[in-house]
From TrEMBL:
Keyword Transferase: yes
Annotated catalytic residues: K191
Transmembrane segments: none
Modified residues (N6-(pyridoxal phosphate)lysine): K191
Native source species: Chlorogloeopsis fritschii PCC 6912
Cofactor(s) in the UniProt record: pyridoxal 5'-phosphate
Keyword line: Aminotransferase, Pyridoxal phosphate, Transferase
Family: Belongs to the DegT/DnrJ/EryC1 family.
InterPro entries: DegT/StrS_aminotransferase, PyrdxlP-dep_Trfase, PyrdxlP-dep_Trfase_major, PyrdxlP-dep_Trfase_small
GO molecular function terms noted in the UniProt entry: pyridoxal phosphate binding; transaminase activity
Name under which the protein is recorded: Aminotransferase DegT
SUPFAM superfamilies according to UniProt: PLP-dependent transferases
UniProt record, GO biological process: polysaccharide biosynthetic process
Length: 400
């Protein structure tokens, strides 16, 4: 008997009674904003990725902002990154008053092309912000080599990459250890684990970790957790300009439960991704994602490049009509109205630059990826029957 399958979402968080119980625990405790649950979540997160320090914040965008500030990014500086990412990556650079310099991606991994970085470095370059796009680790070895030779810090936008791994000196290590200087994670529901919204910074540098903790709570010299427990009156002071980038204890309590589920989630996603690889191998001209031998993705997104003759919107509409949600490939910041004029650079000298609104010669692969790839549904609870159905409909949609 074949049951009718309908409404397959692009993703679905895997949470339940344990998370509901955790929010209850935080609420009944009487301490609801950044407090003991946040501290415990940070320790457990640091242990999971193998970092010395983990600092929880309100989301990954605020994490990126603080990471850039920590390495000294200032107005008029340049930061090398990709346009082909969620817009938060480039936005965080502009929050510092700095200019994003966009480098193109590799068409196979959708990650920054290390060969192009050197050329984009100028005397104003202050940092390199790389992305592990869709959970696929970027070529950190090659990137770090270039960065070190120019004395530049590397920040990892690991928003999608919790649970992803990279082969490092013969050992499999988690993204976030960190391999660059600072790594930033997201717990938005589109990512692999979620706290509703939330972010985390990991680093091995104790000074930066201290800075993050000051910045996230208004620059307050004495955290309110300390004042609350003190037997003597303490007056706090505000030595620096800070922000309110706190995570709440309610969110952190959920995060701790999600962290317990993470190994199972990653295993399941890898299994489903492998199944897609096998079942989609026969679709003519469809290009499947490639995982270099030295990385293991968490498959936060499973992205396919459509046959050249296929129209992206049409394929997506055909799938939607069949009850299957998809998304177009990762956006390009440089094509958005918010990125007009002088807000970004592609590294060309002004007189050699032929960029017009919406297109840039130097970002060809980024634009191609946005226009010709789609992201397929993939979530922990997805059944084989649902996945078979997605494959069947995609196969049909690609034939027309
Ligand atoms: C989701 C995402 C972000 C933003 O994360 P938030 O937690 O929503 O702020 C940043 N960078 C990348 C690559 C992302 O995918």
């Amino acid at each position: 008997m074949s049951e009718k399958i309908q409404n397959i979402p692009i993703t679905k968080p895997w949470m339940g009674e344990a998370e509901a119980e955790a929010t209850r625990r935080a609420i009944i405790s009487g301490w609801v904003t950044q407090g003991p649950e946040v501290a415990a979540f940070e320790q457990e997160f640091a242990a999971y990725v193998g970092a010395k320090h983990a600092c929880a914040v309100s989301n990954c965008t605020t994490a990126l902002h603080l990471a850039l500030l920590a390495v000294g990014v200032q107005p008029t500086d340049e930061v090398i990154t990709v346009s082909h990412s969620y817009i938060a990556t480039a936005n965080s650079i502009r929050y510092c008053g700095a200019t994003p310099v966009f480098v193109d991606i590799e068409p196979q991994t959708y990650n920054i092309n290390p060969i192009l970085i050197e050329d984009a470095i100028s005397d104003r370059t202050r940092a390199i912000l790389v992305v592990h796009q869709m959970g696929m680790p970027c070529n950190l070895k090659a990137i770090l080599e270039i960065a070190h030779s120019h004395n530049l810090p590397v920040i990892e936008d690991a928003a999608c990459a919790i649970g992803s791994e990279i082969l490092w000196d013969g050992q499999w290590e988690k993204i976030g250890k960190p391999h660059g200087d600072i790594a930033c994670f997201s717990f938005h529901p589109r990512k692999v684990i979620t706290t509703g919204d939330g972010g985390m910074l990991t680093t091995n540098n104790p000074e930066w970790d201290k800075q993050f903790r000051l910045w996230r709570q208004h620059g307050m010299s004495v955290p309110d957790t300390v004042r609350h427990g003190a037997k003597q009156v303490i007056f706090e002071s505000y030595p620096i300009l800070g922000y309110n980038y706190r995570m709440t204890d309610i969110q952190a309590a959920v995060g701790r439960e999600q962290l317990k589920r993470l190994p199972e989630i990653v295993e399941r996603r890898r299994y489903l991704a492998q199944r897609y690889q096998e079942m989609l191998a026969d679709v003519p001209e469809l290009k499947l994602p490639t995982e270099p031998a030295w990385v293991k993705s968490n498959w936060q997104s499973y992205c396919v490049r459509l046959p050249a003759k296929s129209d992206q919107r049409q394929v997506m509409q055909t799938m939607l009509d069949a009850g299957i949600a998809t998304r177009r490939g990762i956006m390009c910041a440089h094509r958005e109205v918010a990125y007009e004029h002088e807000t970004w650079s592609c590294g060309s000298e002004k007189e050699n630059c032929h960029c017009t609104k919406g297109t840039c010669d130097r970002l060809f692969e980024s634009e191609q990826a946005q226009d010709h790839t789609i992201v397929l549904p993939l979530y922990h609870q997805m059944t084989q029957q649902e996945q078979d159905y997605v494959v069947k409909v995609l196969n049909m949609a690609c034939q027309v």
